[in-house]
Structure formats: structure tokens, C-alpha cells
Records
---
Amino acid sequence: MCPEKDILSAFFDGELDERFVSMIEAHLSECDSCREILAGFEDVRTVLHDAEIPDCAPSKRLAWSFLSDKFSSLYPRPVWKRRLLIPAPAMAAVLLLVLVLGAGLMVSIFNRRDDFGFDTVTRTHFENVQFASFEQIIEYLDARGNGGALIFTLPQDTRLQYLSEPTFIKAADYKRGRD
Amino acid sequence: MGKNQTKPGNFEYVYDITYPLLYRIAFRITGDENISEDLCQEAFIRYYKRVIPLPDQDQARYWLIRVVKNLAFNHEKRRGRELKANYKYSKEFNSPTRSGETELLRNESARIVQRALKKLPFNLRTAIVLREYGDLSYRDIAKVLGISESNVKVRVFRAREQLKKHLDEEEVDVS
């Protein structure tokens, strides 16, 4: 008995469940009309693929120049100032920002190049700052200016809790949820 | 590509590697290179403006394809309304001088294929285009179109069946 034609079509695309592939292959070895149907699929595929398509290179260049102009006017700020949204549950993922250069350290590393190739600047204080979002970190760094070593640590007690598997949601729904 | 774009480098990368595929899909769905270019541009604008960035290239690709498909659908709906309103243009689909469509399609069989594809209902056309030109699996097509894999299988098959009929009518040597 012949399989349904859409099964043959799935077989043709290599999308048929493995369990049934050998059954179909066995049937095809004995059935002319099913083989003909498959041949028809093959011929349609050949015609589709042989049909020319315009070269996309000019269009790609044109589209890019249009996009570049559009984006530079929409987003003049440097990329790292772009708003990044971090899905941070309230209980978890609070980042500590610590400037570490205590007195003891000061003596041993004064005027010595550290591993990062910078001359070490001594400080006598450290700050322990908490942030609730990445944006706040960026703002803080902006305000501070250059220099210093920053260490990010997660809280000792990991209050991370599993909420759910990540899912994609529409941007509009996310914005609505935030408001 | 310019160095002074303000978007992270991966946007340019995604654009570079995805544009040809997107254009190919748009062209096969719409049959018009100008429209295809517009659709691709719009899709990348929306991608750039995404609030939540996508985790990897595959997700970016599927997302862009879905946007192009939706834009193509809207365009076709609008076009259908315009054609109904302007009856004298209703023969446009059969005219070989439609702008953007035939400028580069010098190959007659390419025109025939495009005409045959255009005769398919949008849902079937999209499924077969994603399969044959997007090289997507049934699973990925299902994700892009928001339907079941079983539905994809049926649509691809029906598209093949109808295409064969249309191509036979055009006396293209399909057998």
C-alpha cells in the first residue's frame, strides 16, 4: 500500500522519522508510481534552483549605505552607552563594585607595572558600591573618569533562584510589562 | 562597510552574512528586486532597533526571515487592495514589463518559475521558498511561521504539487 504523498514529500526532504525511512525505501524499490512522484519532486526542485536570481551585491551595498546614514542619525551616542536591559530578579545578581588598593598593597606595588601594563596608582581608600543594573555601572564609570582597578564580585551568599527557562517575548510586551 | 557605525560590530557581521539569504527569500516570495531590497532594509532597521538582543546568529537569522515574511505578506495584502481599486492595473502580474521584476530576469525560465511561485497562495509559497531557498528544516520553518511541523510538511507538499501543475501548464520540461 502506497504512503501518503506528503509522507513521500517529507521523505524527499530528509524529514521523515528514521523509523519509517527504511520502510519507505523498501516500498520505493517495488512501486513505480511512488518513484515517479519522487522524481516529480526532484524535477520541481531542479527547476526552482536553476532559475536565476538577481545578484544581491548592488542591493546589499545600497541598503547598507542607507542604513548607515539612518543609524548614525538615530543613535549618535557611543555603542556602550546604549541602554542594555538586564533581566535581574530582585533577589539576585546585585553587583558589588570594589576598589581595592589597601595600604598593604600600596607599599608592594608602588610604581610597579602590574600585569595589565599600567603603572599602579596608589589609593588609600576603597569603595564598596552596589548596583542594581548595568546602566548604573556605566554611569558610575562615566562619573569617575579613568584609572583604578575595579573588581566585580557577586554576593557571597548566592541568592540566585531559578525562575524559568529563558523565553523570547515581543519587544512591545516587554515594554508593557516594565511600565 | 564603514567603520563609523555606532552599532556593535556583530550587527555588521549579521548583515554581511544574512543579507544574501534574506534577499533571496524576499525575491522568491515577492518576485520584485526593488521590493525585496526595501523589505530587507526594513528588516535590518527593525533588527537594529531591537530592545532585547538575540543570543546567536541562528536566532538572528530566523528572526529576520520572519520579519521579511510578515512584511512581504503586508505588502501583498496592500497590493491586492490597490489592484482591486485600480482595475486597469490588474493585468500587471501577467505583464512582462513590470518594473523591477524583469530587468534582471532575462532568463525566460526564471520568469516562468517566478510566475509559478506567484500563483501559489502566500502560505504555501512561503513554506516552499523557506525550504528550497532558505534551506531551513521543517522544524525551523515551523518556528519562523509559527505553525506545527506537521503543518509545514503539508504546506511544502501542496506547494510542490501546485508548482508542478503550474510549471507543466507553462510547458516547462519538468518530467
---
Amino acid sequence: MSATTKISYAQALAEAIRIEMQRSADVLCVAAADAAGRSPVVAELSAAFGPDRVVELDAGVHPIAAAAGMAARGARVVCEARLARLGPEGLAPLAELDSELEGAVVARIPDGGPEPGAVAPAPLADWALETPLAVAAPATPADAKGLLTARIRGGSSCCLLEAEQLYGTVGDVPEGSHPVEAESARVEGDERLSRVSVVAYGLGSRVAAAARDRSKSGFELVDLRLLRPLDRNAVAASVGRTGKAAVLEPAASRRVTGEVAAMLLSEAFELLDGPLARIELPAATDIDEAAATVAERVDDLAGY
Amino acid sequence: MTSPAASIVPAIPHGPEISRAERLALLEAMTASRAVRSRVAAARRRGRMAPLGDPAGPGWEALEAAIAKALREDEILVAAAAWPAPLVRARRLGARSRLAEVVAAGLGATVGAPGDRAVAVLAGPGLRPAAERALASAVRRRAPLVVLVAAPGAAAAALRTAAGTAGAVFEQVSAAEVELITLAAESACNAARAGRGPTLIACPPAPAPRPRRPWEPQEPSADPIERYAARLEQLGIPASVPYAPAPGR
């Protein structure tokens, strides 16, 4: 077991990118100029690697398209992009990028809640799932570092959904290079008898983990880690043990609920003792407040 | 096979010096592109392919043939998915990518590239303010970028304004004149390789010939392949490849 260190989610992301940029000169980092200032991840890297490796684009230049152009030349590009501002077709430049190319783009998509002037928060997970790209949504610093490292090293272009509320959360992260090929979801059982399987990702997984201490009933938490490909076996196995399922998803997003519902109806219908429930995670959520709400909903579903 | 009605094609004054073999190669390139487009159109009619937009239709083959000739083997072409571009390996972006995104991708492809390598971009119309910003960024970085845009309707005028605002060199060449587009593309690529910054080349289609009375001279065809085959015939170079005329021309 490698040594671990306690660092924050944002530090874990920066460390993953820094290690990979040190390992290979083909790894580049791209960020768009932002009136709100640089993200903490990019600011740290820019000082270390300079403008040739950490490319800061002028305002108005589409960062994902520029990253796709760099990938066309064989670079493996980590691109930070505010997808809420780019719109639902912001990931379109990556949709057809030749999978035979050595280059690829890992699009980091921070989700900080509704954009200024927006009526409602953007369904970033839904927009990402509209494309054929792999989509990851790590919930812990260790997963963030591991998934990002793995995607930078190999594979085709993908999206990494990051909830900005998780940036300050701290967790144990293995030191050094730590790629995680997360084909499977992480299932956390409860020592109490679990009557509900709560399927969540990203911020939802952290909220659900915090809700476990508050709920009267026990529940199994299925942290998807990857939204595409979805770990259908883990979800079905968990529902087989508990008999009920609930998907915890941001209010604006619907797609993961739909995919889990379709999967359960077609492959695991006989395992269900009740209909699939959907628990909405409000935008700009305080984790503790949301955990209390989620705990109540899970207890209702479990019959408490 | 040339149409007898398309035999009268005005000579290009001060035209480029192109060898017989290169001329035939341009005609074959456009013919290959037309063949791919015909298959795409047939697949779309059968419902086996989603609509890709204007650049996938006939009439824009000269842009692909010209840029294939102008680029060197180790240089990159970035194109939206709508461009078949069969003779040069294009790095394709998503079908819904707009001009601004394709230009941004071309700009990205110049990052870290050797200074004497050009990057070409093939794009359809669809000007947005973001395209001007991407072009301005390319001018500021003196990126070795050549942008060819299929520009039907009033798009060419809008592109001229955008290039002026961004400070980029602008050229307008008829999409029906493959040799002129080739000349413009080669000149732009040489300027890019020499570090003189990006060039935007807008290619509006030629007007379709009007219906003629029997005593009026036949106007040249607006189809780039028919037009070029007629020019080669005037120069005494028989077209060596069969081609299908664009429907409705």
C-alpha cells in the first residue's frame, strides 16, 4: 500500500496534471482567460511550466476547440472549460476527433452552480452525455487524481465533471503517480440492513456519504465514478441486495436517472420492490444541509 | 466528359504556371471529392446519414483540391466533419462545430508546431463574433494559419469585415476557379510558413449561367469541375477521368 497524504480535491487535480506534465512533454494544459481570474489549478501550473506548456487563450477563443486542434497534432491536452458559458454544443469539436490520433483532450468541466445571469443552472452532465465521449465524475480527491491521471495517460478524449464545492474537501490521496482505471463504480455498504441503493456521482456522492450518518435506515451508496460507461453490473448487484433504488442527481440534470431507469427496467426489473426514485440535489448546495434532506428522503423510501 | 455547353470558358489573365500533370491532378482531386459527396448525398437520401450541412454538398470540391495541393505532407488540415476531403487526411471536428470553433481548433494546432509548418482550416459559413476573436488571437500570435471558407450568399462580405476587424489578410476567390484558389492557398501557406501571420480566403460560388437565347454565347458553367474540364480542353489537355456534374447545374 503506497503512502498517502491528506490534500484537497483541487490540490489532487493539480498534482495529477503536474506529475503527468513532468512525465511527458506531450502533455499540455489549456485554459481560457476568465474575467473571474484563473482557477486555482491552472494558476499553480502556469508558474511551474510557463506559457508554452500551460496555454492561456485570449477571451472569446473556444478553449475546447483549441484543445482539439492541439490534440490533432498529437498532444494530450488537459483543457479547463466553463461549459455552462459555451452552451450545450460546447463539446461538439471533440465529437468527431479521430480516435486513431495519439492526441486526446481531457476536458475538465468545473460546475460552480448557476452562471451570472442564468435563469437556471446548466445540466452539465446531460450536455456531456450528449456527446460520445467518456464522462467521469469523481467524488473524492483520490478518485480525482487517479481518474485524471489515467485519462491523461491514455485513451480517447473524455470529460471530467468537477463540482467546485468539492475543491476544498480533503481526503487521503496516494502519493506519486496513481492512475485509476475506474471501469467499476465504488459501492459502500452499511453495517445496518440496507433497504435502498442510492446511486450518485460527484457532489451527490459526497452528500450521500454525509447523509449516511443522519439517516435512520441504512443504505448502500453506489458512487458511479464514470457516467459513461455506466457500471450496470454494480448498480444491478446493489439493487439485488436492497430491492429499492434512488438516483441522487442535480435538479437540472435528468439523464443519469433515465439511463439507470432504463437499465433497471430492461435488465433488473424483477429485483425491484418499488419504483425508482429520484432525489434532487439543489444547486449551490451546502453539503451538510443537503445531507439532511437526502437522509429524510432515503428514510421515506426505506419506509421509516 | 465535358459538357459541350460548357466549352466556352474565359482564360485566366496572369494565371499561375501549372504543369499539365498538376492540372490533371487538380481535376482528379475534384472528381474524387465529388464522388465522395455523391455517396454522402445518396446515403442521406436513404436516411443512413444525418444531414451535414452545405459543405458536404456539390460545388465546393475546388477548395479541397486546392488545399490538398498547397499543404505539405507534414502539415495539418483541420476541418468540420461536413467536409469529405478525401485526398488529404483532415482532422475532423464535430458536425455541429461552427466557424469560430474550427478557427480556434486551427489556432490550437499551431501551438507548439515548428515555425515553418502551416495549418489550414476548411470551414463552412456561420460567422459569429467569436470567429473574429479567434482570428484576432491568431493575428496577435502570428499563427501560421490559413482559413478557407465556403461563403455562399452574403457570407463573403461578412468575412471581409471580420478579417479587417481582426487584422488578418483577406482574399476572395470564386469557388468555381480551382487554379485561382490553389494560387491563393499556396501564397497564403507560404506567407504562414514565413511567419507573416494568418490569411482568410473566402470562396463564394460562381453565379449559375442564365438561360440563353440561341444567338447568345454560352456562359461558363458554375460547376468547378465542368468549368475546369472545359479550361483543360481549351488548353489541349483532354480530361482523363469521368465525373458527374453537380445536380441542378
